[in-house]
Amino acid sequence: MASGADESGDDMVVGRTNVSEERTLLLASNGDNAPDGYGEDFVLNVSTKDDKVLVSSSHGVDAIHAKGTVAFPTGGAIGTIPAGNGVIAQGINGAVGYVHEVARDKNLENSVGAGVLGVGGAGAAGVFGTGQNGVVGYEQATPRDVAFETAQRAGVLGRGETGVSGDGANGPGVFGRGLPGVQGLSAGGPGLLGEGQTGVIATGNDGPGVIASSPAEQGAVLESKRMAQLWLVPLRIQSPLDLPRSNAGELLTTIWADKEQRGKEITSLWFCTVGGDPTQANWVKLA
Asked: What is the 3-state secondary structure (H, E, C) of 198-232?
């Protein structure tokens, strides 16, 4: 049985380990046998027959494995040789990947132009990353900051004029789930900026919808150009004593049919001076 190549210049043998002291180049050209131009859209195709092959263990068969060198010290003037990459790809898209159930889309490939283009299916991600940071992205004019990357632990880490930008076609532009769901931190401006038909919508499931505090100034500043600065939607109760519990400092509006006004619904404004259950609380009617 033939062995594989042992050195540069030997013929490569399929099914064997081939060794070479020099790089191997595979170049496509028109040549004399292709007068009408190159006949395919690839140089090398690696696959399995009928996309299936029996294996001796419970795993699939990958088309290509590529592994670059690891970093190692030479002990000489060169010093430590850095690690190498598994795959380097360059083109309109550097690398394009599809999950099995998705057909190739050349129009999509030609329209994107990305370092990595990943196309997933109904139950598969287009691009999946895992690590201290799953995916790290920089805007092109922003220099890399390794200290920033090292200090973070994020699924997606982005840095640029806008760190991460999302545009939801039929849902949220950015969705966050966690504790908290979304956190904003700014050195000299808003921690969170919301702009839209409604700037910010907050709903608390088992707690307040919004908690705002400041160590130096007001907890909240409300401003409006054409309408009231604050709208307290009235509770449909007869008085604040219908509440199961109150807290001193609370402001409340209620709406109820006033007998003296022949059943007309009247909105009232109340302020809590003493908190507690209905037997302890004290509310002052302001309006």
From this structure: CCCCCCCCCCCCCCCCCCCCCCCCCCCCCCCCCCC
